[in-house]
Amino acid sequence: MFRYGPATKTTETRSVAARPHDRGLRLAAKRALKRPAVVFAMPQIQAVADGFADYAGRSAVSVLACAILKDHMHLVVARHRLEPEQLVIQFKSAATRRLAESGLHPFAAEGRPAKCFARGEWKVFLDTEGEVRRAIRYVEENPAKEGMSRQEWDFVGASLRRRAR
Predict the structure, then answer these.
(1) 77: helix, coil or strand?
(2) How far apart are CA 54 and CA 60, in angstroms?
(3) 134: closest CA among 60, 64, 52, 84?
(4) pLDDT at position 90, please?
């Protein structure tokens, strides 16, 4: 992928998605992928949410906010015994398992489905109540930015969400 330009790296705590970039180069990189980029349909988004709910419930992860969009997700979680990188792996695994079980995995036709999530994560540590509130608002408002309806998932702690506002 490096022939299409360097990776976008940042230490910013806000999205850099609106920064200028070479759209043609970005599209060429996507065409060079082994598989097409995954774009989830609504039944797949629900399956991902079901997987997230399952893992959050089994692992006592307090999810403060969650937005599952067509091509990416946002989660705000309270401090947990696992490192953030491990939590992300577990959430992705639970979502992948639920997609496969429900017959909705985007690569199901390939036999044992390949991973449908990108490697890694973008994590931001929130140190103040104000930062947590801002992150929750950002995640809750994100579906509208993508032309989707507001999302309210049962596994997102309603009392925690109210307290953080």
Answers:
(1) strand
(2) 10
(3) 64
(4) 95
